[in-house]
């Protein structure tokens, strides 16, 4: 039987299963909590799987193997930085976040500071999650182009539609089941199939060591500056991303959030090491791949089609699609949650209108409204992925502002009691302006297009300015209203009811 036919058949069966998960999730979705956070009922197994799935996307899977091919062992640092972010979030903050019984990062800021000004964070978070969804949508389409021979736009449209259907119909319950299957497929594909087959084809570690330069076994071969960048961008970004926090909200208990997440973080680190080893093995087994002309991301597909037996290659390609779809679906529901819960009320308030997005009297109507937001923003993400050739640049801008502008206010609220709402708002404004301004200046003066956008300095300057302003303004302004802090302490202690989601704000 033709290998390509078998590979296509396996991927098609996987895609059909994704649609089936949507209908399964629909049967478990009765209210807002079910749709957005899986009823806050995930135990250790489901929680660990869905957390690992959402953070290990195409960059971690396909990109990680490509980095291993190009740099050797040090290609693992991208995914290690992601795993470190999951570990830190889980061990330091996840149990507190889970106890709050909220839906968004912006709601945490409002609850902690009692200020309308912090709601501007929702706009930044919406841009970040929407661009993350568009990036992932465009990424898995590259697999479809190679596998089915489709035009890029058609591949994006069909792949995006599949994610859109199961996410819209069943919400977080469908996404959780899909993530669980994707987690299993990725684990088998990377650890059980690709790693042993590739190492065997390359003659084992000793055979590889004898045929590559010693720099490929140096842990800092990719460059210290690059490693630092990975930790600054990805580790810090994961601490405050809505797509990650929304998974924390699904945990059944604080203990599940902490230790289930820590397990996922350790898994990510092992995943990164495995991907780098696969890429390193492919460097020896498939030395003629022209990564300069084709890009390093082709290495994954080359390994799947040239080093693995018939059928197994299809499972590995399905693992790549799984990685990208899990990130896309997670970002999509995060974008819809932020848009409806944070951005819509904030924008409406400027026109003197008060919008309550929780229809607790009619849960069915509330779920329908959430579905419409997922559907609408999903279509927007697909269009962005189709018409924009470099959505990575837009995602980088959103990521930089997310970290440079919002990190200090969010983490400051979690760890420093003296932090105030005025300080949080000022630090977010200053950090975002400095980050974006530095990026613009560097881009204007850059000799190569996009060098300014991809530079590290914007985040560094933004973080520094944000931290200085946050501390200074906190010390110069009156402490947060005692009533607000009392409510915050009660929520952190786990004293929130499920129907008590959004705090009352003061101007």
From TrEMBL:
<dbReference type="InterPro" id="IPR001734">
    <property type="entry name" value="Na/solute_symporter"/>
</dbReference>
<keyword id="KW-0812">Transmembrane</keyword>
<feature type="transmembrane region" description="Helical">
    <location>
        <begin position="372"/>
        <end position="388"/>
    </location>
</feature>
<dbReference type="Pfam" id="PF00474">
    <property type="entry name" value="SSF"/>
</dbReference>
<protein>
    <submittedName>
        <fullName>SSS family solute:Na+ symporter</fullName>
    </submittedName>
</protein>
<keyword id="KW-0813">Transport</keyword>
<feature type="transmembrane region" description="Helical">
    <location>
        <begin position="458"/>
        <end position="478"/>
    </location>
</feature>
<feature type="transmembrane region" description="Helical">
    <location>
        <begin position="122"/>
        <end position="148"/>
    </location>
</feature>
<feature type="transmembrane region" description="Helical">
    <location>
        <begin position="154"/>
        <end position="176"/>
    </location>
</feature>
<keyword id="KW-1133">Transmembrane helix</keyword>
<feature type="transmembrane region" description="Helical">
    <location>
        <begin position="422"/>
        <end position="446"/>
    </location>
</feature>
<feature type="transmembrane region" description="Helical">
    <location>
        <begin position="45"/>
        <end position="69"/>
    </location>
</feature>
<feature type="transmembrane region" description="Helical">
    <location>
        <begin position="306"/>
        <end position="325"/>
    </location>
</feature>
<feature type="transmembrane region" description="Helical">
    <location>
        <begin position="395"/>
        <end position="416"/>
    </location>
</feature>
<feature type="transmembrane region" description="Helical">
    <location>
        <begin position="262"/>
        <end position="286"/>
    </location>
</feature>
<comment type="similarity">
    <text>Belongs to the sodium:solute symporter (SSF) (TC 2.A.21) family.</text>
</comment>
<feature type="transmembrane region" description="Helical">
    <location>
        <begin position="75"/>
        <end position="94"/>
    </location>
</feature>
<feature type="transmembrane region" description="Helical">
    <location>
        <begin position="6"/>
        <end position="24"/>
    </location>
</feature>
<feature type="transmembrane region" description="Helical">
    <location>
        <begin position="222"/>
        <end position="241"/>
    </location>
</feature>
<dbReference type="InterPro" id="IPR050277">
    <property type="entry name" value="Sodium:Solute_Symporter"/>
</dbReference>
<dbReference type="InterPro" id="IPR038377">
    <property type="entry name" value="Na/Glc_symporter_sf"/>
</dbReference>
<feature type="transmembrane region" description="Helical">
    <location>
        <begin position="183"/>
        <end position="202"/>
    </location>
</feature>
<keyword id="KW-0472">Membrane</keyword>
């Amino acid at each position: 039987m033709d290998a390509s036919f078998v590979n296509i058949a396996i991927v098609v069966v996987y895609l059909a299963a994704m649609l089936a998960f949507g209908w399964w999730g629909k049967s478990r979705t009765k209210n807002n909590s079910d749709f957005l956070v899986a009823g806050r009922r995930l135990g250790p197994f489901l929680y660990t799987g869905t957390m690992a799935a959402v953070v290990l996307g195409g960059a971690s899977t396909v990109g990680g193997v490509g980095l291993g091919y190009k740099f050797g062992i040090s290609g693992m640092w991208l995914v290690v930085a992601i795993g470190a972010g999951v570990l830190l979030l889980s061990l330091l903050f996840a149990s507190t976040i889970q106890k709050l019984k909220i839906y968004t990062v912006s709601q945490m800021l409002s609850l902690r500071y009692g200020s309308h000004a912090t709601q501007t964070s929702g706009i930044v978070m919406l841009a970040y999650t929407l661009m993350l969804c568009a990036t992932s949508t465009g990424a898995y389409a590259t697999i479809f182009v190679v596998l089915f021979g489709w035009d890029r736009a058609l591949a994006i449209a069909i792949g995006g539609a599949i994610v859109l259907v199961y996410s819209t119909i069943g919400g977080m319950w469908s996404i959780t089941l899909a993530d669980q299957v994707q987690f299993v497929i990725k684990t088998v594909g990377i650890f059980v199939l690709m790693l042993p087959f590739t190492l065997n084809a390359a003659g084992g570690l000793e055979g590889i060591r004898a045929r590559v330069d010693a720099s490929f076994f140096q842990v800092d071969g990719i460059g210290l500056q690059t490693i630092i960048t990975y930790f600054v961008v990805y580790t810090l970004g994961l601490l405050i991303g809505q797509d990650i926090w929304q998974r924390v909200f699904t945990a059944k208990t604080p203990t599940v959030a902490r230790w289930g997440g820590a397990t996922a973080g350790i898994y990510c680190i092992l995943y990164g090491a495995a991907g780098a080893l696969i890429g390193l093995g492919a460097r020896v087994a498939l030395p003629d791949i022209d990564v300069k002309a084709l890009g390093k991301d082709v290495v994954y597909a080359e390994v799947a089609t040239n080093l693995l037996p018939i059928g197994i290659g299809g499972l590995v390609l399905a693992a790549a699609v799984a990685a990208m779809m899990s990130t896309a679906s997670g970002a999509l529901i995060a974008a819809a949650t932020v848009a409806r819960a944070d951005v819509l009320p904030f924008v409406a308030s400027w026109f003197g209108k008060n919008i309550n997005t929780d229809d607790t009297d009619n849960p069915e109507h509330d779920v329908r409204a959430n579905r419409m937001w997922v559907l609408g923003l999903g279509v927007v993400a697909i269009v962005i992925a189709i018409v924009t050739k470099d959505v990575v640049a837009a995602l980088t801008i959103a990521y930089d502002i997310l970290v440079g502008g919002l990190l200090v206010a969010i983490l400051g609220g979690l760890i420093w009691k003296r932090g105030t709402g005025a300080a949080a708002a000022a630090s977010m404004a200053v950090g975002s302006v400095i980050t974006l301004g530095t990026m613009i200046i560097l881009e204007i003066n850059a000799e190569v297009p996009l060098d300014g956008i991809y530079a590290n300095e914007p985040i560094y300057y933004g973080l520094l300015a944000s931290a200085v302003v946050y501390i200074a303004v906190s010390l110069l302004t009156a402490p947060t209203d005692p009533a607000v802090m009392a409510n915050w302490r009660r929520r952190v202690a786990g004293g929130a009811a499920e129907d008590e989601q959004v705090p009352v704000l003061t101007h």
